[in-house]
């Protein structure tokens, strides 16, 4: 293994996906896969390794280079866009805006604020979010909905209510919370500015009338419960942003722990509701434990472990269960990776790099990092262009959700789905006892 892997991987990132002077809309797929994410990678590396230089420049220089030409939307983000206008009724429904980590419209200004430490960019971010906050404030609460009983005639002519905003990390308000916390961390003087939005977004997510939903490409249990599209990702962002909320979220976390299988895999392929309410006349359906280690951080046991290690201090009553869940998940992942037929993808979201971060410092983590450096990962041979990309917004969502069946290849500059930038992050934090996942729980 390279004795100095971090500068090597950062140098490869610059060679394969250099900063661009222009960014067509098709390349603005959110920080998970766009140059906005690379800007943040170099910013984070510059803080952890201030003396590191790449091609004779400090890492912060490259952070500025990557973010400098990311465009900022010219108008605030509207909570809902008009429907498609086709004859199909579904196409006429308003489409919710992307408010999470698949949005460069929000993430670009947020990362620019973090790189520059300029409150003017913080205000730009908040201005872009203003209509979303206004919608949240005008959304009916559960109490208001139950107390108001319109007449049948009024109900008949009332406009159809807008659907709730998406709540998950990739598409929704959990991702918004992460970006607000990111700004608060990197620009400490911004705390008074961002606190109002944090409170309103958190209150909306905690309202009994707000379902936790996501326009996920799959309705699998992994999506419903996991990090990228599901409950675990939303809960983690709420608690890390506002720790005093933890007691109110303990029942949700307990339910997530209940979904772990005896062998340590997570989540269970069956909902709790199905487990507790199956017909007594029918024997419960059995499911073999699939080797879902390949699902990775985004929807599998890796995401459970990395999340629980951050959440543990805030849930003292659940710490014994959390410790047991982490132990079993690690045993499952260690057994899985020793299987010769298991996946060796070298990326953070669904590969062995994300798995490495689920283990403590020591030989097991080192083993996963070595696997990621082996020749098996798909080659990165073509530098990215300012005019071409393998992603559209929809395919980026599928890749970020580890939907391997979509057949979409990662671009060399994709922080979460490509080997070089993912390896750079993993090695940047590999000496920590409890490394965190970038763009999730790193701040």
Q: Strand-residue fraction?
A: under 5%
User: Globular, elongated, flat, extended or rod-shaped: what is the shape?
Assistant: globular
* Low-pLDDT stretches: 142-148, 271-294, 381-409
Question: What is the rounded distance between the termini?
Answer: 29 Å
**Class by SSE composition:** mainly alpha
Mean pLDDT: 84
In order across it, which strands form the biggest sheet? 1-2
* Tally of alpha and pi helices: 19
Q: What is the H/E string?
A: HHEEHEEHHHHHHHHHHHHHHHH
Question: Would you count the extended β strands for me?
Answer: 4
Biggest sheet character: 2 strands, antiparallel
* Helical content (DSSP H or I, runs of 4+): 40-55%
Rg, Å, rounded: 22 Å
Q: How would you briefly describe this protein structure?
A:
With 443 residues, the protein is mostly helical.
Question: What topology emerges from the helices and strands here?
Answer:
Blueprint: H1 5-16, H2 35-48, E1 53-54, E2 57-58, H3 59-67, E3 80-81, E4 95-96, H4 104-116, H5 119-138, H6 142-147, H7 152-157, H8 173-186, H9 191-206, H10 221-225, H11 231-241, H12 246-257, H13 272-277, H14 301-311, H15 319-337, H16 352-356, H17 363-372, H18 393-400, H19 419-428
Antiparallel strand pairs: 1-2, 3-4
């Amino acid at each position: 293994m390279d004795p100095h892997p971090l500068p090597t991987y950062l140098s490869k990132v610059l060679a394969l996906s250099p900063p661009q002077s222009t960014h067509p809309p098709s390349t603005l797929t959110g920080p998970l896969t766009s140059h906005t994410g690379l800007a943040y990678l170099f910013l984070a590396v510059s803080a952890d390794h201030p003396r590191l230089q790449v091609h004779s420049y400090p890492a912060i220089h490259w952070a500025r280079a990557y973010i400098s030409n990311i465009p900022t939307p010219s108008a605030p983000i509207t909570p809902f866009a008009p429907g498609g206008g086709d004859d199909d009724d579904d196409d006429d429904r308003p489409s919710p805006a992307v408010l999470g980590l698949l949005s460069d419209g929000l993430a670009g200004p947020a990362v620019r604020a973090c790189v520059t430490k300029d409150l003017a960019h913080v205000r730009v971010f908040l201005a872009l979010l203003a209509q979303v906050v206004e919608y949240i404030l005008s959304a009916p609460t559960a109490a208001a909905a139950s107390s108001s009983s319109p007449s049948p005639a009024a109900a008949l002519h009332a406009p159809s209510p807008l659907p709730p905003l998406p709540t998950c990390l990739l598409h929704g308000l959990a991702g918004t919370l992460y970006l607000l916390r990111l700004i608060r961390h990197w620009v400490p003087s911004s705390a008074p500015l961002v606190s109002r939005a944090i409170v309103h977004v958190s209150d909306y997510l905690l309202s009994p009338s707000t379902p936790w939903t996501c326009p996920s490409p799959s309705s699998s249990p992994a999506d419903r419960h996991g990090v990228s599209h599901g409950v675990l990702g939303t809960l983690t962002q709420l608690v890390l942003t506002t720790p005093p909320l933890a007691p109110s979220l303990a029942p949700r976390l307990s339910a997530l722990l209940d979904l772990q299988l005896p062998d340590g895999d997570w989540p269970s392929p069956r909902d709790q509701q199905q487990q507790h309410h199956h017909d007594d006349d029918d024997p419960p359906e059995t499911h073999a434990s699939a080797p879902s280690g390949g699902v990775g951080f985004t929807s599998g046991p890796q995401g459970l472990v990395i999340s629980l290690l951050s959440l543990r201090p805030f849930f003292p009553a659940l710490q014994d269960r959390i410790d047991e869940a982490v132990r079993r998940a690690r045993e499952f992942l260690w057994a899985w990776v020793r299987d010769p037929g298991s996946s060796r993808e070298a990326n953070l979201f669904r590969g062995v790099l994300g798995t490495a971060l689920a283990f403590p410092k020591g030989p097991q983590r080192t083993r996963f990092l070595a696997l990621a450096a082996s020749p098996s990962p798909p080659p990165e041979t073509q530098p990215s262009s300012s005019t071409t990309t393998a992603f559209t917004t929809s395919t980026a969502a599928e890749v970020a959700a580890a939907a391997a069946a979509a057949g979409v290849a990662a671009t060399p500059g994709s922080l979460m789905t490509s080997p070089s930038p993912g390896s750079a992050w993993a090695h940047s934090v590999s000496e920590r006892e409890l490394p965190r996942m970038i763009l999730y729980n790193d701040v």
